Structure to design on (682 residues):
């Protein structure tokens, strides 16, 4: 920024959830908003309010189209924020809702989205307790953007990730991003794939009551599971090894990926959770998840490994392919598809 | 969306803070998000978390231009949310920050706004603890929109508004909206007026420790003091009488209003608070406020009156003009100027 000031511009990739987003957060936000509560950069901040730990999170939703197979921007805004609290081991309680509406939006579309938020909130067991509405001129927005912030009460303390821990996923990956992709009329892509958009607290609370050895949880949205796993190993003395053959991916998702050159590891999900748990509890957690509607395709997909003697992959995420090779899975650079959430 | 139902569209006035916003909130949000915490429709929701009352609020900022005399969208986003907590008698503590950036925004503008948020947060004594960044395509947003949600701890319990109570304002009205208006290049309006944009907790906490007879507080933003006062009397058995001669309004604001046909009662403020207090404490509170930088022009501007025998103005807000007449001050219909906050 020093030399040719003003020439550097924000690009779509800055909002991708990948490498540029991470750099932006570090360069601009962490340096200016510096404080110990923000620093962990988790999905929610953990705040001590008079000895009670609460989780606080925010997300703005700009998905296009606003209605898509499996959901709409309203359902997504509830699920996303509920899940950001849930993966911190916090029971989601209260949500805010801020609308930025483009002038000319059909009143009925707003009603439909609001009803969808209300229904999803009921399913998730949360209340929308405060809100705000802004309207911008036609051409200065895109139908509707929704911000939901949320508060939850922390019910679980995560342990430290260790070598040997297993990596679990609650189900098939990539459905949300492929559903959004297919819903964009211009692509003319025909598929039956629906967004996996769902509130995860019920599943997660069952996981957390079944094992006291859960080390980490995260919902792999923008940037996909590759980005989440890279966050786990960042500045750590261990790596992660995934097994491609164990990754639950629908055939149809694989097909679209092959067609368009997408890597499913980077596809966004909106109703999945990645769990790191002590090896001895992994099978039990898979059983618990598979009995839940939202976890029936749960799988152990990899493990935390000691790769510090392998300088080329030290602290990296790697995947053992079906063909038998091993490749590094880096954080996403640029992005596959903008505005998926 | 049915076909003729779809003819009803969201207009800019739905985001004005006036009558259409109120109708929208009641028709769409209150009916769908129905719950006792949302129902009071205050600036913040008051939540009981294990016996501790906390305030929770959200606001999205879409002001244009994003830099204006006296502030910028970042400063505004901190002040607005801090003030929404403060007027509920809650000490503001933790804020979230959600950016929706239009592709192509100068990186330096983002840095400048972020620095401004950081500085204002320091002055206000709050921490930004969680955030989110989305980027939308050029032409699908307008430089930057910011959502800030906030949490505070309730430190004061307001009493019931009664006939005889005094209405106070902490200073001159209309500065913010006139500053925004003048900053819009197309208008070619030259004025020295700066936005009054400021965090009010310090002033408000001094007020609340000086009197235990404060009944109500609100920061008169969109819709101005007319809208706030109408909210106080809504479905109540009393009215409010303002005295035009006591209203603190800068000569320059009056001048612009006269020129453009604006009514200062409907102009947005971003660093002012309206206070309803028992008559016997009113003078003392004016003294307390006038000793504070942000309250030096504080005035008693009216009182809560018993007008139930005057059917034409029962439960209404009225103003006694300098000329000696009395007119009704209704809630704003439509809006004077879009996107002022």
């Amino acid at each position: 920024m020093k030399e040719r000031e003003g020439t550097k511009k924000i690009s779509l990739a800055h909002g991708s959830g990948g490498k540029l987003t991470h750099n932006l957060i570090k360069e601009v936000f962490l340096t200016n908003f510096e404080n110990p509560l923000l620093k962990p950069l988790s999905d929610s901040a953990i705040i001590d309010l008079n000895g009670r730990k609460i989780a606080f999170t925010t997300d703005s939703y700009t998905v296009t189209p606003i209605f898509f197979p499996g959901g709409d921007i309203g359902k997504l805004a509830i699920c996303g924020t509920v899940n950001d609290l849930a993966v911190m081991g916090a029971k989601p309680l209260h949500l805010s809702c801020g609308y930025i509406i483009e002038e000319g939006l059909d009143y009925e579309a707003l009603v439909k989205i609001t009803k969808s938020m209300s229904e999803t909130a009921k399913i998730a067991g949360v209340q929308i307790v405060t809100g705000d509405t802004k309207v911008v001129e036609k051409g200065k927005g895109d139908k509707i953007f929704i911000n939901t912030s949320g508060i939850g009460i922390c019910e679980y303390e995560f342990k430290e990730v260790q070598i040997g821990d297993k990596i679990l996923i609650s189900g098939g990956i990539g459905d949300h991003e492929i559903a959004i992709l297919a819903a964009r009329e211009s692509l003319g892509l025909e598929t039956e794939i629906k967004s996996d958009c769902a509130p995860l607290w019920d599943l997660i609370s069952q996981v957390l009551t079944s094992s006291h050895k859960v080390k980490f949880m995260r919902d792999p949205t923008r940037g996909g599971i590759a980005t989440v796993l890279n966050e786990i190993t960042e500045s750590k003395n261990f790596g992660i090894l995934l097994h491609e053959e164990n990754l639950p991916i629908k055939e149809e998702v694989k097909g679209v990926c092959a067609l368009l050159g997408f890597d499913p590891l980077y596809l966004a999900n909106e109703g999945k959770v990645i769990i790191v748990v002590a090896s001895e509890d992994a099978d039990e957690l898979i059983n618990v998840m598979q009995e839940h509607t939202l976890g029936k395709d749960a799988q152990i997909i990899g493990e935390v490994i000691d790769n510090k003697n392998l300088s080329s992959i030290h602290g990296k995420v790697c995947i053992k392919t079906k063909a038998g090779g091993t490749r590094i899975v880096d954080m996403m650079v640029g992005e596959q598809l903008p505005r998926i959430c």
Summary: Chain A has a mean pLDDT of 93. The domain at 166-328 of chain A is CATH 3.90.650.10 (Phosphoribosyl-aminoimidazole Synthetase; Chain A, domain 2). Chain A touches chain B through 83 residues (CB under 8 Å).
